[in-house]
Amino acid sequence: MSSKISLLLICLFILHLCAAASVRGRKIGIYEIKKGDFSVKITNYGASIISVFLPDKNGKIGDIVLGYDTIKEYKNDTSYFGAALGRVANRIGGAQFTLNGTHYKLVANEGVNMLHGGLKGFSKVVWKVSKYVRHGPSPYITLTYYSADGEEGFPGDVLVSVTYALKDNPYKLSVVFKARALNKATPINLSHHPYWNIGGHNSGDVLSQVLKIYASHITPLDEQHIPTGEISPVKNTPYDFLKPHKVGSRIDKIQNGYDINYALDSNKKMKPVAIVYDKKSGRVMNIQATAPGVQFYTANFVINTKGKGGYVYQPHSALCLETQGFPDAVNHPNFPSTIVTPGKTYLHSVLYTFSIKK
């Protein structure tokens, strides 16, 4: 073995030890970024968004994401409220894949499949607060995480960051995920899981909110919610939101509710994703992203969940629009690739623009 290779192995071993020690001793905190009457709170546990406050058409400030009052509740959460997702968001069929001739068996956490990175995905780790500017013209926080080779079965060491920032005026939230594969090719598909109810987290269900999704195709699922590999048109189906529809207008035609990946139409780097409008509050949310897909989920399995202020969340009390690479892309060559090779940087940007319609 050459001296250069030996030195590299020693450096990686030291990095592993330092990262492990750092995570064990890292404090969990809550961090606010604020600009006027717009504020977002984040915890470094799971790099999770725990609140988003902004006014409605009457000037009343309200929190528009579901969540909990304590960090302990986030630790016990099984719904991924507000959490960052990785190393691979969404599902991997059979919790396995083959890459460059090597078969990788991952940690299954949903039957035989992997969901959102496994038992200890990025939503269940303590991230490092690398930079934090609470106030000013561009408040932001950057969180970083070192994912070791073999974590949840994935190959290679990966450095990951997510930056939450308030941009421009009046109400823009930017979320930027970055990752670098250090020594092996590996799948990376980072996303996050805010449960949006722009009428207010405690305002009831979202079925009357109006939704437009800029996608004319979906990736159909098998009985285990794994993509079949098809990319099918939404025309003449309840999945068609190319024209604005109320979320609940056709939800009864789908078992439990919506939970599927849409293939976004635009070829632009920053793509239009979706627009949500709540008539009662007047709030509008416009989403753009660089990812090729978006998972539309209507909180189907949030049942009797005690949330902020003791409010009890029920099915359809929120909607999720998780921008992402296609689910199970590692096992479908016709899907956009999620493989990142050493020397390449993974980038996924999301921009939420909120406005008020009076």
From TrEMBL:
UniProt KW ATP-binding keyword: no
Any one Pfam family here would be Aldose_epim
Family matches, as InterPro entries = Aldose_1-epimerase, Aldose_1/G6P_1-epimerase, Gal_mutarotase_sf_dom, Galactose_mutarotase-like, GH-type_carb-bd
Its pathway is: Carbohydrate metabolism; hexose metabolism
Active-site feature positions: 193 (proton donor), 322 (proton acceptor)
Top enzyme class: isomerase
User: Protein name, please?
Assistant: Aldose 1-epimerase
User: Which organism does this record belong to?
Assistant: Nicotiana attenuata (Coyote tobacco)
Lineage, please? Answer: Eukaryota, Viridiplantae, Streptophyta, Embryophyta, Tracheophyta
